[in-house]
Structures are given as C-alpha cells and as structure tokens.
Design goal:
By secondary structure, the protein is an alpha+beta fold. The chain has one domain. Helices cover 36% and strands 29% of the residues. It contains 7 helices and 9 strands, in the order H-H-E-E-E-E-E-H-E-E-H-E-E-H-H-H. Helix 1 packs parallel to helix 7. The chain starts with a helix and ends with a helix.
C-alpha cells in the first residue's frame, strides 16, 4: 500500500509534538497545585489546631486570608527571606474566592544567626487591608493607614491585642534568626503563576474580587475556609 507523503509527515510531526503539548502543562499545574495543597495544610494547622486559639475568633469577620506555608530566612551577616503563598478573599459569608498566588520576601543587614523557617497565616480583617495587598506591591510597616499585629506560636490574646489592626499574622517558626521579623517584608502578586494556574488575564483582582477565574484543584481549600 502506498502512503501519501503528507500523511507520513503529519503523523511524524504529531508524534513529536504530542509530548510537548501534554507534559509541559502537567508539570506546571503540579507545581502550583502542590503549593495550594501546602497552604491548605497550613491553614488547617493554624485554624484547627491548639497553638493559635485566637485565630478562629478573628475569622468570622475576616475579609481575606493569606497563607505562606514556608518562609525561609537565613544567613550570618546578610539576611534574606523568601517564600510563596496564596491569598483568598471573601465578599460574603462562606463564599471565598479562588486563591491568588503571591510571593513574599525581605532583606536585612545586620547580625543574623542561624536560619529560620516560618509558617505564616495572615488574617486580613478589613477592606482597607485587603485592597492594600491587592492594589499594589505591599510592604509591611510602610503602608499608610494599614496596621498589623504579629502573634507567635502558643501566644494567646491576639483577638484583644489586635484591636483595630487591619491584618493579624499568626507565625509558627523553627530555628534561630536574631533580629528578623515580618516588618519590612513585602508581598507581590505572582502574575506568571496565576496565569499558569488559571490562564491569561488572571490578575489578582480578577481572581479575588471579580471571580472571573476558577480551578477545581483549589476546591478543598475553599471548602475548608467556608466553615467561617
């Protein structure tokens, strides 16, 4: 049987192209999905565990939650920090948005000892605090009119000490890191990660406020937060 040359070429091209089309998005989705799953684990630990009894008290009126499952700090003379996480916003009771990917980082100069890995859950209590993070690159301690309270593991009284704070951070840290804190750190939406998880045009506001994008991989996180 004589095969048409165009048929052979088309079949060969498809054989080479198929792995590129199928495997590349799968790897990209798995990386981002892994972070969403880690954020669910961190949120479960903070909001369902015994270490942060005040966290649940603040959830009833929260406008958003930002979860950083692993913020790594380290160095001896020069210190730096970095991590990724997601922000989930709420516009009405038990209705949480799909997660927006964020990067968190900081830099410091001074005496640094050892290293530290922090697991942080930020409960965003006000509209002002939510929009400050969504509108632009956010820097803790430098945003006019936005206040934050940080609570370490095992410390109670956050619901009282928070007072009129816009954001309350619950941090679970391990290791030594002299002189380091959340103050001076920044948060910035990760456009590349959001586009890979949702598609082109997936900005922070389009995901969190306009609800134009969704991904079924984030349903477990949304369902967990829907308890509040």
């Amino acid at each position: 049987m004589k095969l048409d040359r165009r048929t052979v070429l088309t079949g060969a091209a498809a054989a080479f192209a198929a792995p590129m089309i199928v495997t590349e998005p799968a790897r990209a989705d798995a990386k981002r999905q892994s972070l969403v799953d880690s954020c669910l684990a961190s949120a479960t630990k903070v909001l369902s565990g015994k270490d942060f009894p005040d966290a649940v008290k603040l959830m009833s009126g929260a406008r958003g939650v930002l979860i950083i499952p692993e913020l790594v700090q380290g160095g001896f003379i020069l210190g730096a920090a970095g991590g990724r996480g997601v922000l989930v916003a709420r516009t009405k009771p038990q209705d949480w948005s799909y997660p927006v990917f964020y990067g968190m980082g900081s830099g410091s100069i001074g005496l640094q000892i050892g290293g530290k890995v922090s697991e942080i859950v930020f409960i965003i209590r006000t509209e002002k605090g939510l929009h400050a993070i969504l509108d632009h690159k956010f820097k803790f301690g430098a945003e006019a009119g936005v206040t934050m309270v940080a609570v370490g593991i095992g410390l109670e009284g956050a619901s009282t000490s928070a007072g009129g704070a816009d954001i309350v951070a619950f941090s679970n840290s391990a290791g030594l890191f002299a002189g380091a804190s959340i103050e001076g750190s920044y948060l910035d939406a990760d456009g590349d990660w959001n586009a890979l998880y949702y598609g082109q045009g997936a900005t922070a506001k389009a995901i969190a406020l306009d609800r134009k994008f969704s991904n079924p991989g984030a349903e477990p996180l949304r369902k967990f937060l829907a308890r509040w």
